[in-house]
UniProtKB/TrEMBL annotation:
HAMAP family: AroQ. The gene is aroQ. This is 3-dehydroquinate dehydratase. It catalyses: 3-dehydroquinate = 3-dehydroshikimate + H2O. The lineage of its organism: Bacteria, Pseudomonadati, Pseudomonadota, Gammaproteobacteria, Oceanospirillales. InterPro entries: DHquinase_II, DHquinase_II_CS, DHquinase_II_sf. It comes from the Bacteria.
């Protein structure tokens, strides 16, 4: 699963100097092609609602335990810095997560330096642009397949 949090539906139009000109649909197409080349399929999702993201993580946990999914490549957007609930969902569902951020959050505003997701993630990709999604998928495959 590739899961995207709030405002990522605005990729390509929101702060292109920070996030680039690719749209979320472009990212999805690239992820699907990359995964297919590796022998996998992608369940690609985006939501601006924290509860929907939590439900997706719970669903992924069930699928991982059933051997139907490797885990989640997760760009939590701004929820990275605010959501203890997402942290708890990842830990509770026991789902492997690779945290992805398009920009280098550590080179930005100080409030972006704290991640509630990093401590429960198996890996983190930061500042590699949308290419970071492919790195996240590759990392998940490497750690889990």
């Amino acid at each position: 699963m590739v899961l995207n949090g709030p405002n990522l539906n605005l990729l390509g139009q929101r702060e292109p100097e920070q996030y680039g000109s690719e749209t979320l649909q472009d990212v999805e197409a690239t992820c699907r092609a990359f995964a297919k080349n590796e022998g996998y399929e992608i369940d690609f999702r985006q939501s601006n609602h924290e509860g929907v993201l939590i439900d997706a993580i719970h669903e992924a946990g069930v699928k991982v335990k059933a051997g139907e999914m490797l885990g989640v490549v997760f760009n939590p957007g701004a929820y990275t810095h605010t959501s203890i609930a997402l942290h708890d969902a990842i830990k509770g569902a026991e789902v492997p997560v690779i945290e992805v951020h398009i920009s280098n959050v550590h080179a930005r505003e100080s409030f972006r330096h704290k991640s509630y997701i990093s401590s429960c993630a198996e890996g983190i990709v930061v500042g590699m642009g949308t290419f970071g999604y492919q790195l996240g998928i590759q990392g998940l495959i490497h750690k889990r397949a």
